[in-house]
Amino acid sequence: MKAVVLVGGFGTRLRPLTVTTPKQMLPVVDRPMIEYVVSTLKRAGVSEVVLALGYKEDLFRAAYPDAECGGVSLSYAVEPEPLDTAGAVRFAADAAGLDEPFIVVNGDVLTDFDIGSLWDRHHALGAMATIALTRVEDPSRFGVVPTDAEGRVLGFIEKPSRDEAPTDWINAGIYVLEPEILERIASGRRVSIEREVFPEIVAERGLWAVHSDAYWIDIGTPATYMHAQLDLIDGVRGAALPAESPEASVDADAEVERSVVMAAATVAGGAVVRDSIIMGGAVIAADALVDGSIVGPRARVGEGAKITGMSILGDGQNVGAGQLVDGLKIPMSD
To answer: Are 313 and 297 in contact (CB under 8 A)?
Structure first.
């Protein structure tokens, strides 16, 4: 089994964290996000992954210089320009010479979905494409996918208003595709798989779906980036991961509640860190407060400062002693 993982986006909603690091290389508790994605594919039986790259592609290569990740072999397909979801799939598949059914996953989705069952269902149906569906409370941010009783997709509605969504089952960003689909994707231009390719296949009654209530989260925003990590340390996805890296320094007089403290981070005495992410090398000085926020790598929160309200400090940023940062991103971005 082979898979294409889409990791070429700019991650604009996660700025300023993604100014220096592509989204899928951001750490999630103890390792880069992409490693969770690849490990899920490996459990399904995938042995080869093609990374569809674009933004800061060199950082992926540097992280995996042997073209291997968690026992899965990697190859790289670097888009010359952004080609959107379908365009990226075709470019990566062509670059890797994929000529058999293959899996596609969005690189910012963390899930416990059984991808092997999707693969098996696809082949049992003889489908042209089979997609995974997950249920969400508010489907307006996603592609909404109504189906019939057998699982045949009846429509593919990209980001409808909440009141107009015909179902709360959405595209989970995991697909099995036949290689013939590549012929439907124009080369050399932006093509959306959600807005162009899938609706065309729906019209031909060739798109099928598998529903799942398994854990699923799209790490596209600061809130979901934080949520996914707190789920891991809370044990929502099985055995809880350690919240504090053994390579972090947390003073005995500091108060750390339900927060991730990554390697080489420092939390000084009297500091309070609550429901937050403290990234590698960050410093939280004495008597500072970090509440419901993300302190980026090598950033510093000065003595007595307060960081609250889903604030985000970018790489190396400094908040002076006694300052209040509430609901801000530093540095500010367009």
So the answer is: no
**160 alpha carbon, distance to own chain's centre:** 22
Which residue from 105, 106, 54, 107 is spatially nearest to 78, judged by alpha carbons?
54
Domain 2-221 part of CATH 3.90.550.10 = yes
How far does CA 218 lie from the centroid of its chain?
Answer: 5
Considering the entire predicted model, what is its pTM?
A: 0.91
Task: Compute the distance between CA of residue 119 and CA of residue 169 in angstroms, rounded to an integer.
Answer: 19
Q: What is the pLDDT of residues 190-247, one digit of tens each?
A: 999 988 999 999 999 999 999 999 999 999 899 999 999 999 999 999 899 999 999 9
- Spell out where 79-186 has E strands: 102-106, 109-111, 129-135, 143-144, 157-158, 169-177
CB 266, CB 279: distance < 8 Å: no
Q: Where are the domains of the chain?
A: 2-221, 242-330
52 and 92 in contact (C-beta within 8 Å)? yes
